[in-house]
Amino acid sequence: MGRKRLQETGDGRPTVHTVAARAGVSIASASRVLNGVGGSPETIRKVRAAAAEVGYVPNAIARSLQSQRTDLIALAVEDIGNPVYVEMMRAIESVVAASGRQLLVHATGGQVANETALLRRLAHRYVDGMIVSPIRVTDDHLAALVDSPAPVVVVGQLGADAPVDNVRTDSRAGVGLAVDHLVAAGRQRIGFVNGPLDTVPGAARDAGFRAALAGHGIDLDERLVEVGDFQYVAGRAAAERLLARARPDALVCANDLIAVGALHALLAAGRRVPEDVALVGMDDTELARMMFPQLSSVSLGSAERGRRAAELLLQRIADPALPPRREQVAPHLAVRASSAAVPDVGPLFVPAPTDPAPAPRTPEVTA
Amino acid sequence: MGRKRLQETGDGRPTVHTVAARAGVSIASASRVLNGVGGSPETIRKVRAAAAEVGYVPNAIARSLQSQRTDLIALAVEDIGNPVYVEMMRAIESVVAASGRQLLVHATGGQVANETALLRRLAHRYVDGMIVSPIRVTDDHLAALVDSPAPVVVVGQLGADAPVDNVRTDSRAGVGLAVDHLVAAGRQRIGFVNGPLDTVPGAARDAGFRAALAGHGIDLDERLVEVGDFQYVAGRAAAERLLARARPDALVCANDLIAVGALHALLAAGRRVPEDVALVGMDDTELARMMFPQLSSVSLGSAERGRRAAELLLQRIADPALPPRREQVAPHLAVRASSAAVPDVGPLFVPAPTDPAPAPRTPEVTA
DNA sequence: TTGTACGCGTTATCAT
DNA sequence: ATGATAACGCGTACAA
């Protein structure tokens, strides 16, 4: 009958009550000691001993209910498998983990509906904040972003004056870098394989491509422009369509996945890279360095943007009254063998004959 | 003075009390309606209306404290950027999301200490369970796994009779598949670029390689074996060391990242693939299909293992009394151009002239 | 069906 | 410094 309160949790794990009872002090004292605030030396000793004996571990949920925070950060991206998001996620994870928090990942599939749903779920307060990198933005989506129930920072282009923390890059200018480079290398018929035009990055890159050509006084031949999506398969298909009807001497691709697809399309069509067709990708993921020939690529600083976004978010969580901030990461071009006569996959590492560690059973080898 | 209980949360969001008061019912009735259990038609109407008016959203923390579950699942892997874990993570995320839960990711860097720390943190009950894919296993690590404070399932090899749910593959046999294939293709001097021998996969693959050669009656030349780690850079360095001292006509690599490194080492050394040296990777990630030549690779079913692991975990959460289970995913070999005379990156897609959608502004093109 | 009251496990307040 | 007690927001016995 009515014993007012059990001292153990339902499945037998100790609580503060267990520790307090065992130490012969009140739960308040126990809690204080366990949190390192106050307590006489004797109390501290008794409580610590009791906690150790029963193997006490504080319950994160109860603590969260009290503290009104979960120390969880969410990240929502289109596809957690895309190398560009992988790099971003890595950077974010490291900042988040360093702050003692943990990272939650969501794959949205690029669907606006999924993202707004996620935004709404923030009201449940299961995370302290969210980083979202939307590729499509609608009006009510934007509205949901603006009056989000929890701190949000956006990675990517947003309406110019949306009052939301965001860190962006200038992918328009990024495409320009690629075009400038190709024109300077004497290429005349520069093609473009883009992702969907109804996405923010797709639209920006399309605009950037046209502007860049115009800047060089080049008339754009529309047959040199093709659209797929931001994946390898569709990118390759798009490149094949383009090659079936036009003869580019250079190809700019809206990301590295597309660029790999285009490379394969070119090779399958018997074109040499870069002799016949120069190729430039975008995002400068490690994939670009893994290709042969290695891919020139426009870095949009995805890791850097991720890092900055995480920092902005942590700052806002610490001080929700902060005004909306906007940071910008400049694009830059990495020139590699796919578009220029630079050393390709060369000997990065000279075998270190004096270093015995990695090569155990073969001391006589170097000869 | 003493108003017993506020009807709003500290920062002004509505709670059940707000809704109840507004609907003119008790919080119990409000809660019942909001959870869809009980309530007269009239009460239901009033409560729903009130909830809608104030924009009520239940607090996940409070709900968790009550229900003793968070609907969060954790995943701990060495490196969230490694394509093999990306594929696993994708598969897990999809199962987890389909069950209405969310996924938390941890990067352990392959450090045992980090993993045991993570295991201990489970006692905080911030997640309902965890999937962990350890590459190094020590005794106390195993002990921590066995009496984990929350359900855990392990992806990877574990001591034969450890009472822990786990889904494994036979990477020993997987290496055998690669060796069999190469021997059948007439290769004589088969080399092996492995990851660290103090890891579970590294040790298993080393054993598998030696056993396979022995099975074919081939004497292993130790100069044909090299060790780096499971990354591209070290893999490439290891391959370069190997090539500096030996003349393999085939190379088996312990994963695809290493295989890409080895491919580059071979190309830099002027060897043709597969003519001079046949190359087989492991894990069969999409990276293998993206290379040129496309890489043969031994699939260890990482996505499938992830999916199964997630399902095992959900089952155990539903019924903790289940006996420990062990599932096995068989390896299989994907033969591609890097090790055989099969069609390489060929025309996957015929341009669809009847499909106007992707090529907007160019009706006259096909001519 | 409805309302009262308690418990989930913790931290914070406020007397003492 | 310490202890009783009130939150945190929710679900649910139990009694009416």
From TrEMBL, chains A, B:
<dbReference type="Pfam" id="PF00356">
    <property type="entry name" value="LacI"/>
</dbReference>
<dbReference type="InterPro" id="IPR046335">
    <property type="entry name" value="LacI/GalR-like_sensor"/>
</dbReference>
<keyword id="KW-0805">Transcription regulation</keyword>
<dbReference type="Pfam" id="PF13377">
    <property type="entry name" value="Peripla_BP_3"/>
</dbReference>
<feature type="domain" description="HTH lacI-type">
    <location>
        <begin position="14"/>
        <end position="67"/>
    </location>
</feature>
<dbReference type="InterPro" id="IPR028082">
    <property type="entry name" value="Peripla_BP_I"/>
</dbReference>
<dbReference type="InterPro" id="IPR010982">
    <property type="entry name" value="Lambda_DNA-bd_dom_sf"/>
</dbReference>
<dbReference type="InterPro" id="IPR000843">
    <property type="entry name" value="HTH_LacI"/>
</dbReference>
<protein>
    <submittedName>
        <fullName>LacI family transcriptional regulator</fullName>
    </submittedName>
</protein>
<keyword id="KW-0804">Transcription</keyword>
<dbReference type="GO" id="GO:0003700">
    <property type="term" value="F:DNA-binding transcription factor activity"/>
</dbReference>
<dbReference type="GO" id="GO:0000976">
    <property type="term" value="F:transcription cis-regulatory region binding"/>
</dbReference>
<keyword id="KW-0238">DNA-binding</keyword>
